[in-house]
User: What shape does this take?
Amino acid sequence: LNDALLAFFQGRYASAEKSAAAALLGDETKGVAAIIAARSAHELGRFSEREQFLDQAKGAAPEVDQARLTTLADLLVAQGRHEEALAVLKDLSARDSRNLRLLRLKLQAEQALHNWDEVLATAASLLKLGGIGPAEEAAVRRAAHLGNLKRKAQDAAALAAYWKQLPSEMRLDPSVAATAARYHIALGGNVEAQAIIEASLERDWNASLVALYGDAAGADALPQIERAEKWLREHARDPALLLALGKLCMRQGLWGKAQSYIEASLALEPTHDGHMTLASLMEKIGKPQEAEKHFRRSAQLAG
Assistant: This one.
């Protein structure tokens, strides 16, 4: 058994499996030896032998049986058999709900299966028990909320309801706010998107959110133009803000101002979106040759 343990932790899995198989002959070492042999067989891709070794660990002392089941769950997760792993983990968690290893395995399986509500609950438990740091927990929560928002992206009422129940710090998170705003815009909820973007930008300036602001124009874009021009006093050389202002002015029919803002944006940062927007403007004001030039430039940038 000692030789098997040393070989396993050295990464010599064939030797570990061989020594552990020999240790199966001893009654006192049988359960632990079978688990080591199973893990070694797994590392060697010998999955049928892995199952046989795990079967040989059954009926041992309770603590050995828990180690067997924990090993089984771990190996199932590693193999991508997440639903089977969760079934094993459910049984184990009923015995020991504060086991950090079990909770981490559960989190991995739930993330893989996109069980976002369960991910949130498990991450909260891990944070409380000290099994995960605040930064990692926040990243897990962000991904889970983004996943839940995606599920509601085709239902305006469900999207709005989920957004309202989000914690305030998550609603102000730039990536979460940008995602929710895009979904609202796609559903025609430009007013909702505006509110989300404005609230987040009041806390932290973010180029992705600013760029979306121009796509969230309402029927009357003047209030948005006024707000964006106030932002411009502090962010005069922000190409995303200048382009957003150009789009808002186009929505309002302010062709001259729109052209000035878009050209100023392109002077700072030539982008596919910027040239496409300017091409669209040129078409609207009867300059097809100019429009064609900017369409070609946008295609070059896209390529």
The chain has a mean pLDDT of 94. Residues 134-151 form the longest helix (18 residues). The CA atoms of residues 83 and 177 lie 31 Å apart.
